[in-house]
Each structure stands twice: as C-alpha cells, then as structure tokens.
Amino acid sequence: MARKTVIISDLSGEEGAEEVSFSWDGQAYTIDLLETEKGELAKLLAPYLKEEFKVKAGTIKATPKKKDAGLDAATVRAWVLENGVKDPDGKPLSDRGRVPEYFREQYRKAHA
C-alpha cells in the first residue's frame, strides 16, 4: 500500500509545505512553510544575517541575563510566597515552574 504524506503550511493552510528550522534567543523552532513563505522569511532575515556566523546544531545554549547572575529562583520564590507578592493581575506566584520577571524585579527592588 502506497502512502503520501502531505505537509500543510502553518501560515496559509495550503499543501506542499516543508519544515523550516531556526532558533531565536537560544530556543529552537520549526514551522511548516511553502517555498514562497520560506522566501519571504529569508528576505525579512537577510539584513540581520549579513553579520551572522553559523554554529553547529545543538551548540547554542541560553545564558542567564547578567542582572540575574547569582539570583536563585528558589530564593526569589520563597521570598515572594513569604511576602504574599502578587502579579499586576492580582495572581500569586505558583509554587512550581518559571519565576516570571515581574516577581524577580520585585525581589530586586526589595533587596536593593
């Protein structure tokens, strides 16, 4: 039995796309694009890629922002929860997951 895989563009919903991989700010992405959509993306990125340098896949690692160097998420979380700090929408910080920048900023202000 013969099978045919059809890839649909994530942008237009049309058939005939191909997977395009790229990374931004240390995060890898894939998107299915038609050849014309891929060309449009390449055209948009062209001015930025003039100064680029290529790296092997898997060698890019996200680095912490300098202002957070030494700022431990567990310490920030404990301080936020102990002090009942809530985000601008009135929501408390969850006891798991990433510590949003808002809470990190509140910690920095309190300990400046």
TrEMBL record:
It comes from the Bacteria. Residues 1-50 form the Lsr2 dimerization domain. InterPro entries: E3-bd_dom_sf, Lsr2-like_dimerization, Lsr2_dim_dom. This is Lsr2 family protein.
